[in-house]
Design goal:
By secondary structure, the chain is an alpha/beta fold. It has one domain: Rossmann fold (3-Layer(aba) Sandwich). 59% of the residues lie in helices and 11% in strands. Bound molecules: adenosine-5'-diphosphate, shikimate-3-phosphate and magnesium ion (MG).
Length: 193
């Protein structure tokens, strides 16, 4: 990247930080979209703190996500997820990466819509499947046909993720470039308001 390009990226990030005021920037989307890893880079770029709701849930419960699903079940995980996200949305100047199911929960979605600017990190099935296959930490995909399960979740969830304020393709390019795409897309969105 040239020095001018780097400078332009920095000035867009500063402009976005100003436009957001303190409002949280929240990433939603499927497992493997890059919410956690791109979110961390995005926070860095904006000079904000990064929070991942799954990490907060694990810390509060002193259990991993797979253990919570196994020992307490998904409904209890979702209730805890909503409480944790409600608390995190009260923080100023944060980038919050949610778990893939969070925005699907109507109560959590309503909270995010009311308190934050939301970004759907979108990716195609093959890209998502390749990414989630690198680790076995996603309990919803422990099925006989994980790709089929992912496909079904996409069909159910994409119409809901559409409700986010902004959509950004999580392309197979360096994660810093995806973070830069998020900055540009959110800035465009806020400038239109
Ligand atoms: N743009 C990208 N290009 C290549 N790999 C990516 C990209 N974004 C994320 N990944 C990888 O995909 C996997 C899932 O990313 P993660 O941030 O955990 O997604 P999420 O939190 O949305 O489930 C990780 O191994 C991450 O390094
Ligand atoms: O899509 C989902 O319902 C889930 C996504 C996971 O987070 P990531 O989207 O960060 O993988 C995690 O919250 C849990 O395994 C459930
Ligand atoms: Mg994540």
């Amino acid at each position: 990247m040239s020095r001018t390009e780097g400078g332009a990226r920095q000035s867009r990030a500063r402009a976005l930080a100003n436009r957001l005021g303190g409002r949280p920037l929240v990433l939603v989307g499927m497992m493997g979209a890059g919410k956690t890893t791109v979110g961390r880079r995005l926070a860095n770029r904006l000079g904000r703190s990064f929070i991942d709701s799954d990490e907060e849930i694990e810390r509060a419960a002193q259990m991993t996500i797979p253990e919570i699903f196994e020992q307490r079940g998904e409904p209890e995980f979702r209730a805890g997820e909503m409480r944790v996200i409600a608390r995190l949305l009260k923080e100023n100047d944060v980038v919050l990466a949610t778990g893939g199911g969070a925005f699907v929960n109507p109560e959590t979605r309503a909270l995010v819509k009311a308190e934050a600017v939301s970004v759907w990190l979108k990716a195609d099935l093959d890209v998502l499947f390749e990414r989630v296959s690198r680790r076995s930490n996603r309990p919803l995909l422990k099925t006989a046909d994980p790709k089929g399960t992912l496909e079904k979740l996409i069909a159910d969830r994409y119409p809901i993720y559409e409700e986010a304020d902004v959509t950004v393709m999580s392309r197979d390019v360096p994660q810093d470039n995806v973070a830069a795409d998020v900055v540009s897309a959110v800035l465009d969105h806020l400038r239109k308001q």
